[in-house]
Amino acid sequence: MAYVINLTNGGSLVTVEDGTIDQSTSLKLVGKNYAGYGEIQNENFIHLLENFSSANQPAGPLNGQIWFDNSQKKLKFYDGTKFRTTGGAEISTTQPVGLTTGDFWWDTSNNQLYAQNSDGGFVLIGPQSIGETVSAMVTAQVRDSNQVNRTIIKGTVDDGVVFIVSNAEFTIDTTDPANAITGFDIVRQGLTLRNTTSAASGVTSSAHRFHGTATNAEKLGGVAAADYALAGAANFSSVVRFADAGFTVGAANDLAVFIDESGSGNEGVIDNTVGQKIRFKVKSSGGVTTEPFHIQSGGLIPTTTTTYDIGDSNYKWRNMYATSFNGLATQAIALQVGSNYRTGDVNPTNNTVAVRDSSGNIAANVFNGISTSARYADLAEKYTTAEEYPVGTAVAVDFGDENEHECVSAKSSSMPIGVVSAEPAYLMNSDAEGQAIGLKGRLPVRCKGVIKKGEAVYAWEDGVCSAVQTTALVGIALESSTDESEKLIECVLKV
Fold first, then answer.
1. Which residues, 6+ apart, have CB-to-CB distance to 223 below 8 Å?
2. Of 301, 338, 340, 443, which has the fewest beta carbons less than 10 angstroms from its beta carbon?
């Protein structure tokens, strides 16, 4: 007769017929009157004793069935769906041996839980505290200055808070010592390092730092990122200031710009520390880059000779000072005479250089020197006359003591001294009053009647001469004239 196999919970598992073996579970269930059941029954006991020890899970498992996974050396149980590993840990004061990957070890000396990894070592599960100090990420509540509780995470090492993580920015209420956190006054949204106080403007005063590569930053050294210039695209919207030490350009600090406070003090310096010259380039109106000049140890040098100017017709330098100028000058204000400088003047002004006037003449008070030639032919001297006589008038000394003038027009009974000159070659007493009276040389003489070249002319009347012989010889005619009326005859004076 068949019998029913029931479960612990009262449920029916299977019905085993007489003389049969049921293999729907991990054990072989023997029916009535089955021959040779002893071996089967004993094997069932062995399977139970060894908890079905195998690398493969047993077939037909029942809820709660135990299986020793021989491949992982783990004791597992069937939860109705799958085999799960049973819990538990090795307990000792020292690191145990003989455990497999995933096994736990409870360190009773430090009250910490470890798990063995695939390399045979142990990984700390927790807690992070070691000894009497705290080294862990600790959640906490802290009151802000408005007495509002704020939730934070404190990164704590050896009881010291190294950083705080917060979802909001607030000021810690430091009036209560129990609420204060050493090294913190303002907690920023995100992560705040220890000793990054509000007064420090975002700069950590202690050695606490982020170590590693950051892809971006709002500040550097407490200065906003917007205040820095890009190396490849510097753009300054305000005055850029450098210390007196200045700055250098070039891989070998070839060019230095700085302030020299020695000597007279605060002197700007451009120092070419490596090369032999400083070159200046500029773009022309046509867009062509030119190099007008450079500076070298010998001075200011044009790049190309006789090509570039200093100043132009519209923009002139006011004064230029030098010991000497070598080259062509189109204009000069003064001429160096010894240690003094003289300007030019068309007038006979003291301490000036004589310059021709618009007529080509040169004026002076006194000429000292030797003249090898003269434009005009007579030697003249200034004498006062009874009246202003025309050029060529023969004059004689006025014998009247009552008269203030020196000369009058000559007549036939006079002793002529000269003839009124228009353009004397040399004028004596040029600053004296009177008319220029030619004394020697050749000059035009007023004459009447026919005059022959080589003929003597004599004073006749009112300073007019003729060929009629008298005692008043004036000169010898150098030309002839048949004109009976008054005219000017070129004569050699014989007075």
1. none
2. 338
Full 3-state SS string of 155-213: EEECCEEEEEEECCCEEECCCCCCCCCCCCCEECCEEEECCCCHHHCCCCCCCCCCCCC
pTM: 0.40
| Interstrand relation of 149-157 and 136-143 (parallel, antiparallel or unpaired) | antiparallel
- Map tokens 């009262």 to a residue: 10
Sequential DSSP letters for 200-264: GTT--SSS----S--S--SEETTEEGGGSPPSSS---SS-----TT-EEESTT--EEEEEE-STT
Q: For 419-474, how does the pLDDT look when each residue is reduced to its tens digit (9 = 90+)?
A: 999 999 999 998 999 999 999 999 999 999 999 999 999 999 999 999 999 999 99
Least confident window among 83-92, 161-170, 470-479: 83-92
Neighbours of 118 (CB within 10 A): 8
If you count them, how many residues does the chain have? 495
Question: Which residues fall within 8 angstroms of residue 96, CB to CB, at 6 or more apart?
Answer: 90, 105
Span between the terminal Cα atoms of the chain, in Å:
199
Q: Contact at 8 Å (CB) between 158 and 191?
A: no
Question: How far, in Å, CA of 381 to CA of 440, rounded?
Answer: 10
Closest to 383 in 3D by CA, of 412, 364, 403: 403
Q: Contact, 256 vs 246, CB < 8 A?
A: yes
Percent with pLDDT over 70 in the chain: 98
CA 58 to chain CA centroid, Å, is: 84
Q: Please answer whether residues 446 and 394 qualify as being in contact, where contact means their C-beta atoms are separated by less than 8 angstroms.
A: yes
Q: Which domains does the chain have, with CATH numbers?
A: 3-50 (no CATH), 136-209 (no CATH), 322-366 (no CATH), 378-493 (2.40.300.10)
Beta bridge partners of 420: 437
Spatial separation of the C-alpha atoms in residues 378 and 396, rounded to whole Å: 17
Looking at residue 394, its amino acid is A
Query: Three-class SS of residue 72?
Result: coil
pLDDT score at 138? 84
